[in-house]
Amino acid sequence: MEITLGGIAGLIAALAFVVLVFFLARVLSNVNRTLGSVANTTENLERQLDGITMEVTALLHKTNRLVDNVEEKTELLAPVAHALDELGTSLNEVTESVRTVSSSVHGAADENKEQIAQAVRWGSVAVELFKKNKTESGERPSRRRGRRERKEETSSVSPGVVATDDTMK
Questions:
Q1: Residue 123 lies in a domain
Q2: Residues 104, 126: one domain?
Q3: Confidence of residue 2 (pLDDT cuts 50, 70, 90)
Q4: Which among 159, 148, 152 has a CA at the least distance from the CA of 124?
Q5: Annotated region Disordered: where (predicted)?
Q6: What is the pLDDT of residue 163?
Q7: Beta-carbon neighbour count of residue 85 at 10 Å?
Q8: Which of 86, 99, 121, 151 has the most CB atoms less than 10 A away?
């Protein structure tokens, strides 16, 4: 038997094919294991997603109930907010009225300050006289008072308090 060049080339080609098939078999075996692992991971992921989906659904239902509850309470509080708004408006009006009255009183006081001062003076004199009469009525005054006592009585009233005809209007 003679070995020819064509035979050697065929033998080398056959050996190369066997080596190629061997390495391809190992690669395919690794790919098979990797795909199996991916399949297991995908199954686990699907189970976890099912659990998460159920939890999210329950959470959405609770959130919807909470939103409904908040809407109901908001509707109940709307009249209270409206009443508070009206109260604020009323308070602003009262404050404005008080300011107006205060301005009017202040203006009138400025215009009539002389008359007010005179009235205060007369009031002070009246109070002093009332106090003197009260203390004298409790002491049993003598029937006759001398000039000196009457002079002391009138001198206790301050000179600016007694009004004269030219200060009266």
A1: yes
A2: no
A3: confident
A4: 159
A5: 131-169
A6: 46
A7: 10
A8: 121
- Which residue, among 132, 118, 127, has the nearest Cα to 160 in the 3D structure? 118
The amino acid occupying position 110 is D
**Does residue 76 sit in the same domain as residue 131?**
no
- What angle is formed at CA 92 by the lines to CA 90 and CA 98, rounded to 5 degrees? 105
Does the predicted model carry a pTM greater than 0.70?
Answer: no
Are 15 and 66 within one domain?
A: yes
Claim to verify: residue 77 and residue 39 sit in the same structural domain: yes
- Domain count across the chain: 2
Mean pLDDT of 121-136: 88
- DSSP-derived letter for residue 4 is -
The tokens for 7 are 């035979």
Q: Kindly state whether residues 153 and 106 are assigned to the same domain.
A: no
Residue showing tokens 């709307």 = 78
3-state secondary structure 95-148: HHHHHHHHHHHHHHHHHCHHHHHHHHHHHHHHHHHHHHHHHHHHHCCCCCCCHH
